[in-house]
Please model this.
Amino acid sequence: MMVTILDVVIAGLLLGGIYALIAMGLSLQYGVARVLNISHGEFIMVGAFLTWMLYTVFGINPLLCLVIVGPVVFIIGFILHKTLFTRLRISSTSSGAFESRSLLATFGLLFIIQNIALIAWGAEIRGYAYLNISVNLGGALFGANRLVTLGFAIAIGLAFYIFLARTRMGKAIRAAAQDPATAGLMGVNINQVLALCFGFGASMAGIAGLLLSMCYPINAAMGLEYTIIAIIVVVLGGLGSIPGSFIGGFILGLVGSIVTYFEPGLALVSYYVIFMILLLVRPTGILGK
Amino acid sequence: MDITTFTSKRFLVPGLIILILLVLLATLPLYAPAYTVILMASILMYIVLTVSWVIFSGPTGYISLASAAFFGVGIYTAAILGGELPLLIVVGIGGLASFCLALLVGALTLRLKGIYFAIFTFGLVMLLRYLVLWWEIKYTLTRGRFVIVVDNNTIYYVMLGIFVVLLITAYFIRRSKFGLALQSIGENEEAAAHTGINVTMVKVITFAISAFFMGTAGAIMATRWTYIDPYIAFNPLFSFMPVLMAIFGGMGQLYGPVIGAAIFSYLEEILLTEFPYYYMLIFGVIMVVAILYMPNGLVGLIQKWRKGDLGEKHANT
Amino acid sequence: MTKKLIFSLIVLTLVALVALPLCSACAPAAPAKDKIVVGMSRPLSGPMALIGDSAFRPVYETFVAEVNADGGIYVAEYGKKLPIELLIYDDKGDVGTMTRLTEKLILEDKVDFLWPACGTAFIFGQAPIANKYNYILLTAEGGATTIRDILPGLPYVFVSLSFSDWYQLPVLADLLAEKGARTAYIMYIADLHGIEYSGVAGIEFPKRGIEIVGIKSVPPDIKDLSPILKEAKASNADVFCAFAYPDQILPATGQSIEIGYNPKVWLGGPGVNFGFYHAAFGPATEGIMGFTTFSRKTSPTANELADKLYAGKPEEVQDWWGHPLYWAGLEFWKAAIEEAGTLDQAVIRDIMATSTFDTILGPTWFVSGLMAKECHTGEIGQWQSGVFEVVGPKDKATAEFIYPKPAWPAP
Model:
C-alpha cells in the first residue's frame, strides 16, 4: 500500500515537473511580454527534434545538447520578438489590441514552424532510448531519465528565479512586467528587455522539448497539445509567477497520476475539471494577484 | 433634402446589393457545379460560426473559445437524433442544446474576465471532448457514430437559411437597446451596471443566442461528415478559427466578419488543394503579414482607404 | 460616393468568391486520354500525418514510380499504356475537410480513380461517399470489424488491411495457448482500435483457457502509463497486451523497461511493427510481439518488395504489417484494370470482387470486400535479433516463437 501511494505520488511529481517547465516559458512570455504564445509548443517540438537529431545522427549526449539547443532556440525567439512582436507592439493602439494581434501572429507562427519541421524532419513519429534504467525510490521504481528531467526542471526554475530576484537584468524584467511605461522612463530599454524575455521563454520551451524527447516519442504535430497544457498550468498557478508554474504543474501532475491509477479514461477529464473549478473559485490563479 | 429620401437612398443601395446577393446564393444549386454548392456550404458554415462569435465577443470584448463546444454539441445532437426526427427539428434541437449549455456556462463564468474567461471556455471544449470520449467508450462501447446522410443541396439550403436568420438577428441586436447595452458593457462593465442595465442577463442571453447558431451549424454540418467521434466533433480548431476570421475581417462592421470568414475559408481551400505540401507555411505567412499590415482587419483597411479618399477630396478643394 | 464605392468593392469580392469556383470548373475539356489520374485526400499536415507518412505514403510513391517507369498501366480500350498521375490534397487530418475534398476530387476534378484517406474513422467518412458516386475505394490504413459490418451496403469498397479477428487474434490465442500461457492483462486505447481488439481478445483468449485478469482503457492523449504498467506487473499475468498506437506503444515500452516489467509475452499494437520501434529501442526489442504480414524470409517476392521499399533508406521507414498488404492491394487494382481493359469503375469493381490475381502475397482475392485471410502471409510477429519475424500462424512462420520473452538487456 505504502509503495502504491509512493508510486502514484512520485509519478505525479515527475509529470508535474515537465508540466512546470513547459509552463514557465509561457508564463514569462505572457506575464512580461504580453504575448499569449500559441506557438509555444512548436518551440518545444523544435527543441525535441534538434536533440533527437544531435543524438541519433551525431551521437551527442542529449543532456549535453542543452548547450546547443538552449541558445539556438533563444536566438530564434529573440529575433522573432525583435522583428515581429516589437513592431506589433509599437503599431498597436492599446495593450488589448496588442494582445489579440500577437495571439493571431503566434497562430501564424505555429503554422509556419510546423510546416518547416514537416519539411525538415518529416511527419513520422521519432523516439530514442536514453537513460531508461530503473531507479528504486523506497520500493517504487522509476526511470532515471524521468528523474533527471524533474531535476533539470527544478534547477532551471530555481536558476531563473534567482536571476529575476538578484540581477540587474532580472529587476528590469520585473519592472517591465509591472509597468512597461514607467520602466521605460526609468531608463530600461524596454524593447530589449521584452525581446530577451521572449527569447528566454522560447529557450525554456526548447529545453523542455529536449527533456521530453528523452521520455516520450516526438513528432512534428506534437506542439499544440503541450501549449494547451502550458496554458492550463500558467493560469492555474498565476500568470508570470515561476513558483506558480511549479505549483500548477505539480497539482496537475498529481491529479493526473491519482486519477490514472483509478480510472485512466478520466485522467484528462480531471485536468479540466480541476482547472475549471479552480478558475471559478480563484479567478486569478493560485498565486495570482 | 428631406429625411425620407435621404434614408431611402441610404438603404436602397446596400439593400439592393444584399437582395441581389441573396438571390444569387439562393439559386446557386441551379446554375453552379455540384462541388461549388458543397464548398459554399462549408464557407457559409465558417461565416455562421464567425458572425455568431462576433455577436457576443465583438461588443463585449470577452474572447470566447467555446465555439467548438457549441458546434460539437450540435454535431452530437445530429448524430444521436439524426435518424429519428425530421432534419429541421434536429437542427433546431442542436441549437437549443447549445443554447442551454451556454446559459449554464454563461451563468458560471460571470466572475471571469479577460484571458481567464478565454481559457475557461477553451477548457469547456476539451472537457466535453474527453468526457464524451470516456462515456462512449465506457457505456456505448464505441468511439464514434454514423450520422444520417443528407442531400448536399439540402445541407446548403439549411446552412443558407441559418446564415440569413443569423444576419438578421445580428443586425437587430446591433440596432436595438440590447446592442447598446452590450456595447456599454464592453466599454465599462461597472458603469453599465450603474446605469441600470441588467449586465448579467444581457451577457448570458447574448452568449446563448450566439451559441444557438453555432449549434445549428454543427447539427447540419454533421450530416455532411457521415461519421463523427469526440475528437472530430470537439476540435479546438473550431474555437480558434472564428476568432482568427473575425480579427482578419475586422469587427467594427457587420460585413467585416462575413468577408473575413469567406476569404479565409476560401483561401484555405485553395491552399489545401493547390499547395498541399506548403499549406501551413503559406497560410501562416499570410496570417502574420495580414496582422502586421492590417491592424484593424479588412474593415480597417477599407475604412482607411475611405478616409484617405475623403482626405484627398479635402485637399483638392 | 465613397460608400457606394465600398459597397461595390464588397460586392465584387463576394461575387468573385461565388464566381471563382465556377471558373475553375469551366476549365477546358480534357484532352484525349493519356494518363490515369488518381486522386487522394491525405493528412499531409496535422495529427494524422505521422500515420499517413509512415504507412501508405511510401507504398504509393514507390508503386507509382515503378508503374510509370514501366510506361504505365495497359488499358485495352485506349490500346496503350497510361501512366498514373497523382492528384493529392491535404485534409489536415480533419474528417470534414476530407469529405469535402473527396467530393471535389470526384465532382470537380473528375479523377479516374480514388485512393484512400488515412485512418479508420476517415474510411467511415469516405466509404459512403465513394460508393454513392460508384467510385472504387480500396482502403489502406484502417480496417475494423465495424467496417466489415457496413461493407455489404458498400459494394465499391475493398479493405486490404488485416485486423483483429481477420485473422490476428485467433492466431495469437492459439500460439499463446500452445505455450501454456494462462493469464493476460490488457491495456487498450480508448478508440475504435482499442475497443475492437480488447473485445475480440475477450472472446478468443478465454476460448483457449487464457483468463483475462485485468483490463484498462487509456485515453489517446495520456502521457504517463506507468500506473497501468505497475498494475499489470502486480497482476502477474503471463501475457501483456497493449492494443494502442505508436504514441502509447513507445512510452509503454520505455516505461516497462524502467520499472523492470518483463512478462512472458509483451505484445503491442501498431507501432511494434515499424522499423522506428527497433531504431528507438535496439536490442531491448528482443522477444517483443506485434502484428505483421511478412518478413524478408517469407518468399523471394517478399524480399524483393522489402528491397524496393527499404533499400538505402533509414530503418525507421519499415513497416512489416501494412506495407505488404497495401502493395498487394495496388498490384491487385492494377491487374484488375488490365483485365478489364477499360477505366469503367463498375466493370473493374466486378472483376475485383470475383477474380484472383497474383500479387507479392501469392494468389490474392477478396471475400465480400475484405482481402481473404488465406492470402495473408503472416499475422503475428516477434522481434528476434533485430528482425521482425513472422511467428504465427505456424505454417507461415519464418522463425520459432520465443516463449517466454527474454529479460530486458542490462543497460
Chain B has 15 helices and two strands.
